[in-house]
Design a protein that fits this description.
This protein is an alpha+beta fold. The chain is built from 16 helices and 20 strands. The strands form 7 sheets. The protein has a 6-stranded mixed sheet. α8 packs antiparallel against α11 and α14 crosses α15.
């Protein structure tokens, strides 16, 4: 007795949804579709073998992506003296196969479930992609095949590098099956991977001053992220003899290398965003994806490179965004050779973090701690050298101001003493530790009050 099962399907006559079953067999273990058999296995035959075989061939060629024709064979058979068309489908090598007009989604991808053809689950689709593409995210076929590359085209043109279908194949943005890879997805306007930037007051993640989320092509994210950071990378000035010396809070080359590292080496198989946090004293770059297996932090710091996204790195290399593999961390460290504070690199099983110190902030702290009279003071985004009172004179000015106003905030101290924000923070912290002031409130509402017990002691 003939029965339908996981690898056998009966059709009384040709119907258009036969393509769904072809897809299901190609996504599974293969199978045979018999046209001319009833569901119960009885033979009814077909009247026009050639017409049916032509229709099957056309629908397989025109409707199914990627090309599956080499895995499908139509032949005529005689069963119980009646003509039957047998469509033999082999397991494909470019799974998942899907209906071209519906894309790599459950409504377009089919699998066999017993004797039935059913839409594949998201998990099943991803499993097929991983199975046929290996562990490389960038080489896997993109779930979204409706991609545009306006920003990428513009960026290649700006760099004087040719960009067309031939180059996309060479760069592995288009796979051997003619489909867009995840690498293409990352460089398209449709990319869903994001960079989140935030600016915080002070040195803790308590109060946001500003935040932004970037999406779309990695080239667009890269340019917007760098411009955003640059807005908060202030310039300070001092004079050496007759010459004015401008100093950025963060070496521009270090920022550039840290940003490129975050983009090129991120593990894009995870959906979490790259995080860039700007504080008063540092910038933190946190990316998903720890070190590549077999590589240690010591290896990274001496210039050893093991690329997670080889093809993405090759594109950035071709566009001269990176000069050579493994030099980024070395360059970042070199940028801080002349400074006391050094970059810090931390790793976990699933994350990588680079912290760049604010060189000017730490200069202020050093000057304060060593009793330097000359400190840097901000003025319209620039800083200039100015005279600051001696420490005990500062204490007296702050206490008298507190008596007059009832309390002071950090900005009051900055203005009254003509000192930097960092110096004001350190002074208020010292006065609090010494018991002269009492700190009350949180975040933007922090106020400093004179210690009543101290005032009482002074009175008596």
């Amino acid at each position: 007795m003939r029965v339908e099962n996981k690898t056998t399907e009966f059709k009384r006559e040709y119907v258009d949804d036969i393509k769904n079953t072809v897809i299901a067999f190609a996504n599974g273990d293969g199978g045979n579709i018999f046209i001319g058999l009833d569901d119960d296995g009885s033979v009814c035959g077909v009247s026009d073998i050639d017409d049916i075989m032509l229709r099957v061939t056309n629908v397989v060629r025109d409707s199914i992506r990627p090309d599956i024709t080499m895995f499908v064979e139509c032949k005529d058979e005689i069963i119980e003296n009646k003509s039957v068309v047998c469509v033999c489908v082999q397991r494909g090598t470019a799974r998942p196969y899907y209906i071209g007009g519906k894309g790599i989604r459950p409504e377009g991808v089919y699998v066999r479930q017993g004797a039935s053809t059913v839409p594949a689950s998201d998990a099943a689709i991803l499993a097929m992609i991983k199975e046929t593409s290996g562990d490389s995210y960038e080489m896997a076929r993109s779930l979204n095949q409706q991609l545009t590359f306006e920003k990428t085209v513009d960026y290649f043109a700006k760099k004087g590098v040719e960009f067309g279908e031939a180059q996309m194949r060479t760069l592995h943005m288009i796979g051997d099956d003619g489909m867009y890879t995840n690498l293409a997805f990352l460089l398209s306007e449709q990319s869903v991977h994001t960079i989140k930037l935030a600016v915080f007051d002070g040195t803790k993640k308590t109060v946001f001053r500003d935040r932004k989320e970037l999406s779309g092509s990695l080239f667009e994210q890269m340019e917007e992220a760098f411009a955003y950071i640059d807005r908060y990378n202030r310039t300070r000035s001092e004079f050496s003899g007759l010459e004015r010396v401008d100093m950025r809070d963060y070496p521009v080359e270090a920022v550039r290398e840290a940003l490129l590292n975050a983009i090129v080496h991120r593990d894009y198989s995870f959906s979490s965003s790259t995080l860039i946090s700007i504080f008063e004293d540092r910038i933190e770059f946190v990316t998903i994806g720890g070190l590549v297996k077999g590589i240690s932090l010591d290896d990274i710091e001496i210039g050893v490179s093991a690329l997670r996204n080889q093809n993405l790195a090759n594109i950035f290399y071709r566009l001269k965004l990176i000069e050579a593999y493994g030099t980024g961390i070395l360059k970042i460290n070199e940028c801080y050779d002349e400074y006391r504070e050094k970059p810090v690199i931390e790793t976990s099983s699933n994350a990588f973090k680079i912290t760049l110190p604010n060189t000017n902030f730490h200069k202020d702290i050093y000057a304060y701690e060593h009793g330097a009279e000359n400190v840097l003071r901000e003025s319209s985004g620039y800083y200039k050298r100015t005279y600051a009172p001696e420490k005990e004179e500062r204490v007296q000015i702050v206490t008298e101001l507190c008596q007059r106003k009832g309390y002071v905030v950090r900005k009051d101290v900055q203005d009254a003493l003509d000192i930097s924000q960092a110096s004001a923070i350190l002074l208020l912290r010292e006065l609090t530790d010494r018991g002269i002031l009492i700190k009350k409130g949180m975040a933007r509402n922090i106020r400093y009050y004179l210690n009543d017990n101290l005032q009482m002691k002074q009175h008596f």
